[in-house]
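Appendix C: a fully annotated inverse folding record. The material below is reproduced so that readers can follow the format used throughout the book. The structure is listed first as tokens, followed by the designed sequence.
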């Protein structure tokens, strides 16, 4: 979906570039301001994250953490720990069914020859991930209780913990979702802002033999290549004319779909249309929120997703001016299935996560231990089995991961409220 991270180059299928979370700038009030958190997630503000995690009570000192801190040269993203340290998970029948469905999606990806080039990763082979998924699925179906499941899991699986942003395992968990907007297959006076298909001159590039969406080239008529143009050059030149996929009524909604990397569209014909990531121009993401503050369009203390939306609703003529400062451009395709992640397989609400696929094993089972917001926006402990099935467009480190929440308004709220530290564990079957 990303899709985000929205999203990224597709391995045998479209990829997500999700909304949520790539580069984030957290203002101090964001921790207790759902609107601000929603803005941060949806607009991916430049990453200088200010966190108060671990600081409790009046007068606690602020801690500044760089959740996108890169690994040191030669450092692995995962460190093996004693499996007995794994937190226990609780499984409902519905959760077990969703996980089994997700496991089937991971296995479908791993069965493709294109998956071979992504392994080994962090000293983990594709065969190890395949065996781990089969064993986990069998355990989900055979364990008679949570106690039996957790005991067997810790006995049969190795636990590899993300080193996080601080080499102590600290991971920031943000959220993403699939937005829904109205659209038309043909332009008219209302629907006149297009999402574009992948251009024929966009050349996928590899990094160390693996598709990398941070490298995008343009094939010239003489066969040579050059870096693909940025957003301003694309829009001002009209070079994508003729590759329109669908039209939206709001120019800022078009931009949000690009940030998210996917969307569900309600067409004027009455049918629904799923659009998903089909490539990017390879430029880095740059947030626009602070530009509006500096220009005096929105007071810093009132900056939120909703004030941003409101401003552009009242001033649609300014959308191109401000979004033009973000050089990243995302292209789309139409799909008949659910939202697809970077594995080219459907992502599943409360099952799929998005991580940096250059350092973590694709499709692998994980345990996420963090906190999530309840309906009253109060943090509550959250520990769950999840599957690494997506890529965050701006997530390029061991200290940041995205939780896929699903579709609709409620999941938009959940994604916007999700901003918590925790631990991320990968599960690999013992030999």
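Designed amino acids, in order:
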């Amino acid at each position: 979906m990303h899709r985000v991270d929205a999203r990224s180059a597709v391995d045998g299928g479209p990829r997500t570039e999700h909304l949520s979370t790539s580069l984030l700038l957290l203002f101090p009030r964001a921790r207790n301001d759902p609107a601000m958190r929603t803005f941060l997630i949806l607009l991916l503000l430049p990453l200088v994250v200010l966190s108060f995690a671990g600081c409790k009570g009046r007068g606690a000192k602020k801690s500044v953490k760089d959740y996108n801190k890169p690994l040191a040269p030669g450092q692995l993203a995962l460190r093996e720990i004693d499996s007995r340290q794994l937190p226990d998970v609780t499984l409902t029948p519905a959760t077990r069914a969703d996980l089994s469905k997700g496991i089937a999606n991971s296995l479908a990806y791993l069965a493709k020859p294109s998956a071979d080039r992504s392994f080994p990763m962090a000293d983990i082979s594709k065969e190890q991930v395949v065996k781990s998924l089969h064993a986990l699925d069998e355990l989900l179906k055979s364990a008679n209780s949570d106690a039996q499941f957790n005991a067997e899991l810790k006995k049969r699986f190795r636990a590899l913990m993300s080193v996080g942003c601080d080499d102590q395992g600290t991971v920031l968990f943000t959220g993403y979702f699939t937005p829904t907007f109205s659209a038309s297959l043909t332009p008219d006076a209302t629907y006149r802002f297009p999402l574009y298909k992948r251009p024929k001159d966009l050349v996928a590039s590899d990094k160390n033999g693996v598709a990398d969406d941070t490298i995008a080239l343009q094939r010239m008529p003489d066969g040579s290549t050059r870096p693909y143009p940025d957003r301003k050059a694309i829009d001002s030149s009209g070079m994508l004319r003729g590759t329109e996929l669908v039209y939206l009524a709001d120019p800022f909604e078009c931009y949000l779909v690009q940030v998210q990397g996917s969307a569900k569209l309600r067409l004027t014909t009455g049918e629904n249309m799923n659009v998903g990531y089909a490539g990017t121009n390879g430029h880095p993401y740059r947030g626009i929120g602070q530009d509006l503050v500096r220009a005096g369009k929105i007071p810093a203390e009132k900056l939120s997703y909703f004030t941003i939306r409101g401003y552009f609703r009242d001033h649609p003529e300014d959308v191109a001016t401000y979004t033009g400062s973000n050089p990243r451009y995302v292209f789309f395709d139409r799909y008949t299935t659910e939202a697809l992640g970077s594995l080219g397989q459907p992502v599943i609400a409360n099952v799929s996560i998005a991580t940096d696929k250059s350092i973590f094993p694709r499709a692998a089972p994980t345990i996420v231990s963090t906190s999530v917001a309840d309906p009253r926006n109060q943090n509550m402990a959250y520990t769950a089995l999840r599957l690494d099935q997506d890529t965050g467009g701006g997530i390029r480190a061991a200290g940041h991961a995205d939780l896929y929440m699903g579709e609709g308004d409620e999941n938009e709220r959940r994604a916007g409220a999700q901003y918590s530290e925790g631990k991320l564990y990968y599960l690999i079957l013992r030999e």
